[in-house]
Amino acid sequence: QVQLQESGPGLVKPSQTLSLTCTVSGDSITTSYYAWNWIRQPQGKGLEWMGSMTYDGSTYYSPSLKSRTSISRDTSKNQFSLQLSSVTPEDTAVYYCNTYPPQPDWGQGTQVTVSS
Question: Is 55 within 8 Å of 32 (Cβ atoms)?
Answer without folding.
Answer: yes
